[in-house]
Amino acid sequence: MLPVLDEEEDTARADVSGEIRLPATLEGAGPLPATAEIAIVGGGVIGLAIAYYLAKRGLNDVVVVERGYLAEGASGRNGGGVRQQWSTELNIRLMQESVELCRRFAVDIGVNVWFRQGGYLFLARSQAEVNRLEKNIALQNRCGVATRMLEPRGALAIVPELDLTGIVGAAYNPTDGILFPWPFLWGYARQAAAHGARIFTQTPVTGLERQKSGGYVVHTPRGSVRARRVINATGAWSPQLAQMIGVDIPTYPIRHEICSSEPLKPFLRPMVSELSSGLYCSQSMRGEIVGGVTIPGHDPTYGKGSTLEFLATYARRLVRLIPILGDIKILRQWAGPYDQSPDGNPILGTPPGHPDFFLACGFVGHGFMMAPIVGKLYGEWLTGAQPHEIFGRYTLDRFANGTAAHHEKEDFNIG
Amino acid sequence: MSSRADLAIVFIVAGKIVLCRCEDVTLADLEHCVSRGYRDIEEVKRYTAFGTGPCQGKECLAAVATQLAVLTQVPPAMMPPFTSRPPLAPTPLRLLARDPAAHRFADDPESERPR
Q1: CATH number of domain containing B32
Q2: Which of A184, A249, A375, B25 stands 20 to 30 A from B64 (CA)?
Q3: Distance between CA B20 and CA B1 in Å, rounded?
């Protein structure tokens, strides 16, 4: 059994009446309420973070509907990396806040998510990559992120197991980190439910209708809920939900694979990533080496199958970079979809003509690390605060009216 | 002995019944998991970590599924196994690294490229 994930008093075990007591968190049975102020579609980390912040701020007439189980989509399939090394000021500043929220997560939410700030080490194999890192580091330093450029030997001081052949430079920020994704979701779900939000798993949305009188009706096999506002937090499936009300979202699903090794005693502090291949790996708190690699040229797909191509490519790149890992064994591999947006930035706010339909998609594989701050900012906005600038900048209509071309394009969607 | 005490003994014993040896998951762990609302076998896997060790479920999946069926009162026939994950058996990276299925990047060493 994993070490204790939730730190609440364990009443369920002490109860010897034989009755299994379901917590309010997951409503596996029963109909949806007829109405809600806000319906959130998608029980991934984004939807649950928003639900938590809404409910905590007193707006708890919230229903979350999740097609499968919590963490079934990309939220349960990622490597758990949380970093501030980005190429645009907005993303850097957002991730500074997300890291702070991750640091406080165990205290605020009451769940141990094994957040560990071991840093992120990016390795460059060409001068062009070094130049790119240096440009980003200058911006990160201006924002107060202490990333620094290292000579190859400096990287060796952080990860002595590296083979430096072909490495020409590295970027290292000691306050980036990793977490364990699943309890992160469960923590948000439990706290959202404790504040009154209602979360329905195994509840796919079969239809979405706009009401003439305002609001939407969300249809599911468990019944329909009429909501004044709807939030699309369905990740790679966002275009499908939006299409139900005639909104086109230009994101597409790209399958990314990942794998995990047998557990080893702790030896690898940072997340290690190689720019040229998108290779990344870190050691989880369970001791496993968890990592992936980006193989270009595959068509969009919702498929979650595993391939030998991935495993062989990952192994080849990783053993070249850290030869001593050649003898460890891979236990399992899996896959999940990135919600790929055309300019590498998320799509937030409302689409034209739908002031009560909110988007939280297009996170390009980095929605998990963005979720704490995006959830918090959405929670504040939808409970009456002034909208944060992300809701005006990362809008859907930037693609239609051509302003996306003038935006900063995020070029650091690595891994 | 009262029925309450009987059940207390069952609870104590459940803590000794190991369902997943790789990850040390007991019947009591499973009961706790179900009591928290995690009843889908995929969720149970994630909550307890059963089936994520060296055997990848080959030894424990049937045992956990059988007990989960009892606890959730779902017929065993309605309980599909969790998604099995490659590789079939734990495989060293060094072996995988030699497989010709690997994608070649522009910066792969020339000598290692396929002839």
Answers
A1: 1.10.10.1100
A2: A184
A3: 32
Examine residue B61 and state whether it is found in any structural domain, yes or no: yes
Residue B108 forms part of a structural domain? no
Q: What span, in angstroms and rounded, lies between the C-alpha atoms of A271 and A281?
A: 6
Stated pTM of the model: 0.92
pLDDT in tens, B58-99: 999 999 999 999 999 988 888 889 999 999 999 999 999 999
| Residue in A with minimal Cα distance to B8 | A16
What is the DSSP-derived secondary structure letter of residue A300?
P
> SS3 string of B20-39?
ECCCCEEHHHHHHHHHCCCC
What crossing angle do the helices spanning A367-381 and A89-109 adopt, rounded to 10°?
Answer: 80
Question: What are the residues whose beta carbons fall under 8 Å from the beta carbon of A251, sequence distance 6 or more?
Answer: A236, A238, A239, A339, A340, A341, A342, A347, A361, A362
- Residue ranges and CATH numbers for the domains of chain A are 31-116+175-251+341-415 (3.50.50.60), 117-174+253-338 (3.30.9.10)
Are A1 and B43 a contacting pair at CB < 8 A? no
Q: ipTM for the complex?
A: 0.88
